[in-house]
Structure formats: C-alpha cells, structure tokens
Design a protein that fits this description.
The structure holds three protein chains of three kinds. By secondary structure, chain A is mainly alpha-helical. In chain A, about 75% of the residues lie in helices and about 0% in strands. Chain A has helices spanning about 1-30, 45-50, 60-70, 85-120, 125-140, 145-155, 180-205, 205-215, 220-230, 235-255, 260-270, 275-305. Chain A is flat. In chain A, about 45% of the residues are buried. By secondary structure, chain B is mainly alpha-helical. Helices cover about 65% and strands about 5% of the residues of chain B. Chain B contains 13 helices and four strands. In chain B, α11 (about 265-300) packs parallel to α12. Chain B is elongated. By secondary structure, chain C is of the alpha/beta class. Chain C has 13 helices and twelve strands. Chain C has helices at about 45-55, 80-85, 100, 110-120, 125-140, 145, 155-170, 185-205, 215-220, 240-245, 250-255, 295-300, 315-320, and strands at about 5-15, 20-30, 35-40, 60-70, 75, 90-95, 175-180, 205-210, 225-230, 230-240, 305-310, 310-315. Classes of the chains: A mainly alpha, B mainly alpha, C alpha/beta.
C-alpha cells in the first residue's frame, strides 16, 4: 500500500520534469518574445525588460534557474498581471475552479452511479433503456452545447441564475456556481452511468451473487453490500482521466459562464503569451492529474482486496 | 437405413454439422444487422457524411460569401431582392432579409416600413429611387449568420472539417497505437516494460493543455491539429492492442507459426494484428467522436480552425454568443454535431457487441 | 408427509436460439433427514431443478412454466418473493460447485458467514460472530477466530468449500442442496468434503439433495437416487436398487461406462451419439436415438415415470411393458 503511494509519488517527478521541460523549451522555440513584436518599445526598454525577467541569459541557464525556482513553487512574475506573481494568480483563481469542480464531481458521482445501478438492476427493461438513453444524450451533448442551453433556459428565460459573472449577483435564486457545476457534472454523470452499469452487470452475473440470493439476502442488500464494491471498480479507474477531463471541461464551462477560474486564466495566458503563467498553470495541472491518478489507485486497492498484497 | 422420419434418428454426427462455419466478419455483420440502434447509427452517420461531402455543391451558396443585409435571418425566412439600376453597366442585385428591412429604410417611420413589407410580401414590386424591391425565391434553409452567410452551407462545410479532423486524427492515433502496442506486446520483457512505462508517463500529462499549447505555439495549423490530437489519443489504443497481443502470443497457433519458420514480422503482421482487428475497429469507432469532441473544444475556445473556415465547434461557439436573439445559429450546428456523436457512439457499442460476443451474452 | 414434494416441474429458458426445455416434468419427494442424489450428465437439468426450487433461476431468460414445490405448507414456486426469501438460507440452504467464485471476493469471510443470521434471525453482530467462529470450527477450520477476518482469496479451494458448508449450515436448515460440491476440488480434498457433509448431516439431521455426475459418490453417499436425462427423471430408486437392478437403459449404460480395474485391455464403453437438442420439442423417449433396446414405440410414445418394482420407478416404456428385462446381463458391443 505505502509502496504503491511512494511509487506513484516518484512517478510524479519524471512527469513534472517532462511537462516543465517541454513547455519551457516550446515557449522558447516560438519566434518573438512577449516584448518584441506586439508592443512598440525601444530596444533599450526591451533590453531592460529582458534583463528584468532574466531573458538575456543563455538558454540552459534560464532553464536551470527556472527549475530551481519551480522546486520552491515560485513560477516567477506574470507578464500580464504586473502586480501579481504566477503563484498568486493560481492561488486566486484555483479555489473558484476547485469549488465548481468539486460540486460537479459530486453531481456526476451521485447521478451517474444511481442511474447506472438502476439500469443494471433493470437490465433490458424500461428502466434500463430510459436512463441509458439519457446518458447517451448526455455524452452527445458536450459541455459547450449543454452550457449555452442551460444558460439560455435558466438564465435568460427563467431568470433563476446569473448567466455570466461570478461576483455581486447573489439576488438570483441560484448561486453562480450552480449552472457551471451542473453543466460539467451532467456530462461526466453520463460516462459514469455507463461505466457503473457495465461494472454492475458484470458483478451481478457472478456466482457469488447467486450465493447471496440463496442465503435469502434481500435485493437491496445484495446490490449495496455484495455488488456495489466490485461494480464501482471501473468507475474508480475512470476517476483519474475524469479529472483531466474536468480540467479541460472547466476551460469551456468557465468561458461559457464567464467564471474567473484557473481555466480562464490559462486560456487568457495562452492568448497573451504570458509564458510564466502558462508554464505555471501547466505544471499545476500536471501535479493535479498525478495526484488524482494516485488517489484513484488508492481507492481501487481499498475496494479490491485481491490487489492488496 | 430406413428413411429418416423422426427428428432424432441416430445419425453419426460429423464435425461440420456441429459447428456451422461462418467467418467472424460475416457473423459480426449478421449480429450487427439485428441491432437496430447500431444500424440507425450507421445509416445516420453515412447520411451526415454524405450531406457534408456533397451538400455544399447544391446549397447554392459558399461558406464565405457574406451579405450584411441578410445578417441573422431566421431559417426559411422570406428574402427580398433589391435591383439597383445604374446608368452605366449591369443592374446590381442584392438580397435583404425581411427582419433587416429596418436598416434599409432607416429614414422611414415604422408604419411605412410595415406597409412596404406587406406590399412586397404580397408579391408586388416596390420602387424607391433607383432601387426596385421584389419578393425573391431565395431561401436559407437554416437561416444566416451575423455576417449574412448561409448557415446550412457553413454547417456542411464545417462538418467536412470536423469529420476530416475526426478521421485523420483517429487514423494517426490508430497507426501509432497499434504499432506501439503490438511491438511492446510482441517483444515483451524489457522492451515492453520500457515502452509501457513511457506510455504511463504520457498518460499522466494534462493533454488538452498540451494540445492547446501546441496550437498556440506553432500557429493554428490544420495539419498540426490532426497530428496533435492523434498523438494524444493513441495511448488507449496502444494499451488495448498490447493486452490482446500478449494473450494471443501464448496460443498454440503462434507456436505453430514459429515452428513453421515464419519471421517475427510475418507473425506480427499476418497472424497477430489481423486477430486484434476487431478490437482496433471497435476502439477506432469510439475514438472518432472523442477526437471530434476535442477538436470542437479547441475550436470553441478559439484555438481551432480560423475564420472564414469553420468547424462545428466554431459554429457552436458563434451560435452561443447570439443565442438570445437567434437560437438557430446554436441549434443547427449543435444538432449536426450531437447527431454525429450519437450515431458514432451507438455504432461503436453495436460493433463491440457484434465483434466481441463474449462481452454481451444475453 | 414428505418434507419437500416437487410435482411436474417444468423450467424453460427462452433464448434467441429457441426454447430450451431444461427441466421437463420432474417430480420427486424428499423425506426428513434423507439423502437424495440427482445424477446425470451436464445439461441434464439437475442443477436447474434445484435452482428452480430455491428461486435462483435468472428471469429472464428462465421461466418456471409449471409445477409445484410443497415445503412446510407453502408452494415455493408460486409463493410471494418475501415468503420465499424467508426460506432461502434459513430452512433450505445451498452449496455450489465452484467455491472459487461462489464466495464474494470483496467481502471478508466473517461478513459473509454471519449474513444468514443477521438477515433471518435478527441476531446481534457480536453474537452472530461467535456463532460463525463456532461454525467454522465445526467444519474443521483451525484458528477460526483469526482466519474469519480474511478474504476468500486467502483460502485454498478445499477451505473455501468448508466455509461455504459452514455458511449454509449456520442457520440449521432442514434441507441442504449440494450442487456438485466436490467437482472442482482435488481428489483427496473431495473425500474430506464428502466426509464433512456426511458428518454434519448426521449431527444436524439435515436432509440433503446431492447433485452429481459421479456415480461413485452416489453409491457411497445417497439413500435414494434420481437419474436425470435431457431434463427428465428416467429412473428413481433406493441406491442399492439403482446399482443392483437398473431398469432404464440409460442408467445401465452409465454404469457400464465406469472403467473397471479388472477389465484391462478392453475398450472403454461409451454411449454412442449425443444428448438431444433441448430446443426441439420431440416426440418419444429422449434416449431412444442412443438406445440399443429402442423399438418403434420408443419414438412414438412419450414415456412416463412408473413404478415397476416396490420403490423403483422407470420411464422406459419397453421395460414397463416387460419387453426387456435384466439390463445388466445384456452385454452390449461398444460402437464408436
């Protein structure tokens, strides 16, 4: 168990190194720095700016210096936000994305698992086809279609939720977090429902379920106590990749609902060629993904006693 | 022996009577044909593909032809034509949507405009200065976008791009994935460990982020879009192929092939890969919608194809900006996009059931 | 009054390939404390018979088309689900063929063992646990108090079957159905498990329905035997009678196909042909196409199980009519 965790944490190092190296050199390979082309500045000013940001040193020196600072979680100053460092931008924007992501995740799990279990128990009956058709619909209505539709219905027509903006709109019944979280959550609920159904069908056809029936265990206990643990394994395995999806999904959702989260900051930094911010957010996303893959591995070992050795 | 009358005469049983020999593919097709949802997916997808491919030749418009007086006209909205007679040369003809008549007669009061509109709608011509206005036969099936471009044409041309990206990137990912997975699985040992560890590390990268970076750093290049998405999506394919190759490798027919003196390459390409073809097809079918989704996300964020070219993602993005006033701009491309995803997913599920009967034994 | 009386049980499976008549008109009765064997080859419907009684047939595709199973004043086949549930695991228990897959790999053995007590007797957990440890000791698992907290994969096959037996007997059922409990075990372990079931049966006075394809096990274990073929009971009698005086050609050929040690160099006897396709609703005796004694009547008339000697029933029409007798002596030339 501890070995697994340590092993995974060690895997974090090459992953991060690759991310940092690739993004760093990619940003250097692009012709034109942030100060050269776009803005009308005298060569002296550019030289000064380059010196300030350390861009006048040889590449490898910049690279090593960069790595050394990253270890201290210092991604340097942002180009676009003059008064804020990259770390501060992340600290400001990430909690917002985290809130939405967490809520979306809960929505996805609760709806997805419930729908999947109902479908599996009623295999090839109405209550299988109905939730599964809905789930297929959910997969085929990606966030950037569902988001605008929800915004239109709940924001513009019913006026229950703010359509855009995050602050100062608390007079409407829905918190501004709800629509983005629902949009994001429903999409993943659809995937989780399909995975849960598959996993549960697999488990429900096993011999040990027949044993439990022969013991006279009531149906609901068979599902909760006997089947759910094994049936949820595919869902848990999906959690890691789901997080990666939640991150890229957050780009879309934050754009649709104009949420000042990390996804928006990343997209903005990309358009502004704010390299320190790009590098910082990419590394941060990398850490998040590895950590969540690790968590999903740990939950898997907890659920499946056979993998515990 | 007496004539066989009863259905259970003691006839010696021959092996070929016990197992009816149907090839895997024929068998799979028969199973797929029974699956109505999958068949619907297949037909729907073919229809969408055909529309996108040949449709733009028949709509009568091009995807980039703008006409500002036609801006944001609703689907099938009546269009009127304005013929401007000039002293020299040909008369100039242009089109106006009824909803944009306001812009044409800015100086007239509301009531006058209504009267003019009614008159024209009745089929009469209306003369104003050098311009003659008439009801035209021209119709825009899906309406027009804020620049007066025909939405149907744009959706179909956008569909070409989306489908092309979907298929080309899937092809890239299948090629890389199959070669990588098959090599790792076939070689085994240290090579396998090394190759799969590498894939593991890549798997942990935030890929959408990397693709976005690639798109920004190297320009929004069409080919790069294929390559970037393809390079992202090959990992799962590699894993699946490797797993299958490993389980196949230990079966007797491979040992037989080895004992016949076949080279590794012959075994890999003639015996192993054809046997995992089913899984490859299933997974590729399910990769196409994934790729299209990723392309749409990029385009939606403004990082995909650039105007005037469009893809479904771009159109949905444009549509979502004006959905308060002209919902069809969102609805039409979203409908095409969702229908395509729908049909591909159903087809993929159906193919899985058909090619891998073990996975669904009901 | 018999403990369990099964009458005219028909269980069909409605599949894409047609209707499989897995159990076709089966009747038998079981007395208190008796050990009854059901013998037959795979696919003869012996397991499906018992699953039907306990309501374990997956529906769909399975369906109990007709029949009654009277037990303690209720009909197990038609009673409400809740009533059946109170019988399952409490008054009738079951152990299965494969102990590797019949225990839940995601649950501790303790949780699975106490389940019948918690479900049926509303017993407190600690009391149930004490009882579970005792029951594990009774089936010969040493160090039960600590091993009860392990997971099934930490036990060997034989040990797991012991756990299954402990679990099935923990609520002192009146009937234990054992569905080929030794088939997937090593030969040495097989004997131990059989001995254990016998021992526990003696201790508790439980009636046992023993499903097997192994005639040797039947001979040593059962009081009474039903021989099944193609979903029907073709012969039933007390064990000694079944072996001493077979009255159905299928039973006779089965016994003939047991290899005998003293007949070295003789080719092994096999029954020619295959069991019939159960999706075909045929007329006549299902064994007729493979039967050396079969006459025209066997293909025309549906056989019924009738008593031909005291306590001995057969479904062979020609035997019932007295056209053939003494099936043991007739030495059949093996055809391949």
């Amino acid at each position: 168990m501890i070995k697994v965790i340590v092993g995974r944490l060690l895997q974090l190092i090459p992953v991060l190194l690759i991310i940092l190296t690739v993004t760093f050199f990619m940003s250097k390979m692009v012709p034109g720095g942030p100060f050269s082309a776009e803005r009308q500045a005298t060569p002296e000013v550019i030289a000064k700016l380059n010196a300030y940001y350390g861009l006048d040193k040889p590449l490898w020196e910049q690279y090593l210096g960069y790595l050394a600072r990253v270890v201290r979680f210092d991604f340097g100053p942002s180009y676009t936000y003059q008064s804020e460092s990259v770390t501060e931008v992340i600290a400001r924007a990430f909690p917002i994305s985290l809130q939405i992501g967490t809520l979306a995740f809960c929505i996805a799990l609760v709806i997805g698992v419930t729908a999947g279990v109902i479908a599996a128990v009623n295999k090839n009956k109405l209550w299988d086809y109905f939730p599964m058709s809905l789930s297929m619909l959910g997969i085929c209505l990606p966030t950037f279609v569902l988001g605008p539709i929800l915004a239109l219905v709940f924001g513009l027509v019913l006026k229950l939720a703010p359509v855009s903006g995050w602050y100062g709109l608390n007079y409407v019944p829905f918190h501004p977090m709800i629509l983005p979280a629902v949009t994001l959550g429903l999409f993943y609920a659809a995937y989780i429902a399909r995975l849960t159904r598959g996993g549960m069908l697999d488990i429900l056809s096993q011999d040990f379920i027949r044993t439990a029936r022969a013991k006279g265990v009531p149906d609901h206990q068979i599902i909760v106590k006997h089947a759910l643990r094994g049936g949820l394994l595919p869902v848990v395995a999906f959690l890691g990749p789901a997080l990666a999806g939640l991150i890229s999904g957050s780009f879309v959702v934050e754009k649709v609902f104009n949420v000042p989260g990390l996804g928006q900051e990343f997209i903005k930094s990309v358009f502004n060629r704010d390299y320190p911010l790009i590098l910082g957010t990419v590394a941060f996303f990398g850490i998040l993904i590895v950590v969540f893959n690790l968590l999903s591995d740990i939950i898997q070992t907890l659920l499946d006693p056979k993998s515990r050795k | 022996m007496a004539a066989v009358t009863a259905s259970i005469e003691p006839v010696p049983i021959r092996a070929d009577e016990l197992v009816q020999g149907t090839s895997l593919w024929k068998d799979a097709w028969l199973r797929l044909k029974k699956n109505h949802v999958a068949l619907f997916g297949l037909y729907a997808f073919c229809m969408v593909g055909l529309f996108c491919l040949v449709g733009p030749f028949f709509t009568g418009y091009t995807y980039e032809q703008t006409e500002i007086s036609l801006k944001a006209s609703a689907p099938m909205e009546p269009i009127l034509s304005r013929t401007e007679t000039r002293k020299t040369g040909e008369p100039k003809k242009s089109f106006i949507a009824f909803s944009n008549l306001e812009d044409e007669f800015l100086d007239k009061p509301e009531s006058d405009r209504k009267a003019i509109a009614a008159k024209i709608a009745n089929g009469e011509a209306y003369q104003e200065g050098r311009n003659t206005y008439r009801l035209s036969n021209q119709r825009h099936f899906f309406g027009t976008d804020p620049l007066g471009r025909d939405l149907l044409t744009r959706v179909l041309v956008g569909g070409r791009i989306s489908l092309a990206v979907g298929f080309a990137a899937t092809l890239v990912s299948v090629c890389i994935g199959v070669l990588w997975g098959a090599t790792a699985g076939f070689a085994g040992g240290k090579v396998d460990t090394l190759m799969m560890r590498f894939a593991d590390i890549l798997y942990a990268l935030p890929f959408t982020v990397i693709v976005i970076l690639l798109m920004v750093m190297f320009g929004r290049n069409f080919i790069l879009l294929f390559a970037a998405i393809g390079a992202v999506e090959w990992l799962n394919m590699a894993r699946i192929v490797r797993g299958q190759i490993i389980s196949l490798k230990n079966q007797e027919f491979i040992e037989a092939a080895i004992s016949l003196g076949l080279s590794s390459r012959q075994i890999l390409f003639r015996h192993l890969i054809p046997n995992v073809m089913g899984s490859i097809i299933i997974y590729a079918t399910l990769t196409v919608p994934n790729v299209m989704l990723l392309e749409a996300v990029l385009s939606f964020l403004g990082l995909g194809v650039q105007p005037p070219l469009s893809s479904w993602g771009v159109l949905i993005d444009e549509g979502s900006r004006t959905m308060e006033t002209s919902i069809w701009l969102l609805a039409c491309p979203a409908m095409f996009f969702s229908l395509t995803l729908f049909s591909l997913n159903f087809l993929g599920d159906g193919l899985r059931d058909a090619l891998d009967p073990k996975s669904s034994k009901d | 009054m018999a403990l369990l009386e099964v009458e005219n049980l028909r269980t069909y499976f409605y599949t894409r390939g047609g209707i499989i008549r897995a159990v076709d008109n089966v009747s038998f009765s079981l007395e208190q404390g008796e050990t009854m064997g059901i013998v037959g080859e795979s696919g003869s419907g012996k397991s499906v018979t018992c699953y039907s009684i306990l309501g374990l047939i997956p529906r769909p595709p399975g369906k109990i088309v007709s029949g009654r199973a009277r037990f303690g004043g209720i009909d197990l086949l038609s009673c409400p689900k809740e009533q059946l549930r109170r019988v399952q695991g409490k008054r009738i228990s079951m152990i299965f063929q494969d102990p590797m897959t019949s225990l839940n790999p995601y649950m501790r053995v303790s949780d699975q063992l106490v389940e019948p007590l918690l479900v049926h007797e509303k017993m407190g957990r600690s009391q149930a646990l004490t009882k579970a440890i005792a029951s594990l000791e009774e089936v010969g698992i040493q160090d039960a108090a600590s091993r009860i907290n392990l997971y099934p994969h930490q036990f060997s096959g034989g040990m797991r079957q012991r756990v299954m037996i402990a679990m099935a007997l923990i609520s002192r059922p009146e009937i234990l159905i054992a569905d080929e409990p030794t088939t997937s075990l090593d030969v040495t372990v097989q004997a131990q498990i059989l001995e254990l079931i016998k021992q526990r049966q003696k201790d508790l006075g439980t009636a046992v329905i023993f499903i097997t394809h192994d005639l040797g096990v039947v001979a040593s274990f059962c009081d009474y035997v039903n021989v099944m073929y193609a979903g029907r009971i073709v012969e039933s009698a007390v064990t000694d009678e079944i072996f001493a005086r077979p009255m159905h050609p299928y039973n006779a050929s089965l016994q003939q196909s047991i290899p005998a040690l003293h007949e070295k160099g003789q080719p092994l006897f096999t029954i020619p042909g295959l069991p019939p396709d159960l999706t075909i609703d045929f007329r006549g005796c299902p064994f007729a196409p493979r039967c050396v004694h079969a006459g025209d009547i066997c293909k025309e008339q549906n056989p019924a199980l009738k008593q031909t000697a005291p306590g001995h029933k057969t479904a062979c029409i020609r035997f019932q009519r007295g056209e053939i007798a003494d099936l043991r002596l007739r030495n059949v030339v093996a055809t391949v």
